[in-house]
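Quick start: what a row looks like.
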Amino acid sequence: MLERPKPHRTCLGILFVLIGATAPAWARDVAWPEAVAQLAHERSLAQTCTASLKAHGDAEQISRGEFAYGEAKASFDAVIAGLITALDQGEAPKALPDLEADLEHGDAGLRKFCETVSDLLPAEAGQRGIIDDIVKAVVAIDALKDGVAALYNNHRADSALTRATIKTQLEAARWPDFEQIGAAR
């Protein structure tokens, strides 16, 4: 005769199935290509907001924007440098909580920067909606944290060639200097 499952075990099993079925894609295993892509995505958003600022802001607004961009860039640069250091054999990287704190600071700075730029754009041109969509599209901080943690924790299992590839892609995800970004047309 089949034994009936205990009610609390059944409910727990259903709960785990539901949580797993509704969990966002980033909550699952994140591999290094996705992690690097998330960092590159943030860079692209920052460049788009900067180009819009340069096209629509006055000298004072652009100056303030350059400062905000620089703060967010510094945080993302710290994350990327920490990951590159972790990929290098024999070097002591920043602790993962420090990288995550830099990531949170950079993400918050990017959001604030893009929101400020959005406020400068004329509503009738439809451009404000584009930047608003960009602000909403900033990758969820938890997804970025998961990606950074995956890179940080899993790099030791990667081959030397894979680590070199990741380092190259991380370098490409660095944000350009503010002066290097042209105004949007």
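That is the whole record. Residues 30-180 form one domain. Residues 87 and 155 are 6 Å apart (CA to CA).
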